[in-house]
Amino acid sequence: MSALATPGYGRAFAFFREAAGPEWDAYTRHAFVEQLGDGTLPRASFLHYMRQDYVFLFNFARAWALAAAKSDTLEEMRHAASTVAGLAEGEMALHVEVCAREGIDKDALFATKETQENLAYTRYVLESGYSGDLLDLLAALAPCVLGYGEIGLRLAAEGRETPYAEWIATYAGEPYQAICREVGALIDGAIERRLGADFTAVPRSRRLAERFTTATRLEVGFWDMGLRGS
Ligand SMILES: Cc1ncc(CN)c(N)n1
């Protein structure tokens, strides 16, 4: 596999990604992603997805705020809190801008009724944090942040003509890639601090990888929902 296909987001990500096996490709090479890349995705599907994703990101920012509360060190807390800011100021701004151009204002975006796929995913992540520790929560959070980083890099490198270039540029761009590297470093630090440098040999790592894979599967469901449209 090429270096581009496995971006450098850290040791734990590489371990979880490998453990997810074909589920990872089902997520990062989903038909929705391919249609974003080649420009064939129907606009209605894209807008349906963007509206759902705005609400998703609001709940997801909540989960990162929970990660700050579950942190054991100031460094972990700072990383988690800066990810909340990155989501609220960076990623969600894309959704507001794209939807505003289509006549969907912020209030309408925020009032979007969540689909079951959206509910299932965000509540799974939040529950991972409520019932588990920081590692459980980070394992559930990781596919979202890092998967989109990987997708953005690949689609940007393919450089195909598409009306979704702005979406691709957001996830391939340096601000989002910097968040990915920070999150990768946060997960590596958190897991090594609690399970040791040889964490892949510790049985708990397997359970964390299962959590990562479950969240990966929920990402697939989210794309399916987007493709289905409203
Ligand atoms: C469903 C989903 N997963 C991941 C991302 C990227 N943070 C997102 N915006 N939406």
From TrEMBL:
Pathway the protein acts in: Cofactor biosynthesis; thiamine diphosphate biosynthesis
InterPro entries in the record: Haem_Oase-like_multi-hlx (IPR016084), Thiaminase-2/PQQC (IPR004305), Thiaminase_II (IPR027574), Thiamine_Salvage_TenA (IPR050967)
Chemical reaction(s) catalysed: 4-amino-5-aminomethyl-2-methylpyrimidine + H2O = 4-amino-5-hydroxymethyl-2-methylpyrimidine + NH4(+); thiamine + H2O = 5-(2-hydroxyethyl)-4-methylthiazole + 4-amino-5-hydroxymethyl-2-methylpyrimidine + H(+)
Residue span(s) of domain Thiaminase-2/PQQC: 22-228
Molecular functions per Gene Ontology: thiaminase activity
Domain of life: Bacteria
Keywords: Hydrolase, Thiamine biosynthesis
UniProt GO cellular component terms: cytosol
Similarity section: Belongs to the TenA family.
The protein's name in its UniProt record: Aminopyrimidine aminohydrolase
Organism: Amaricoccus macauensis
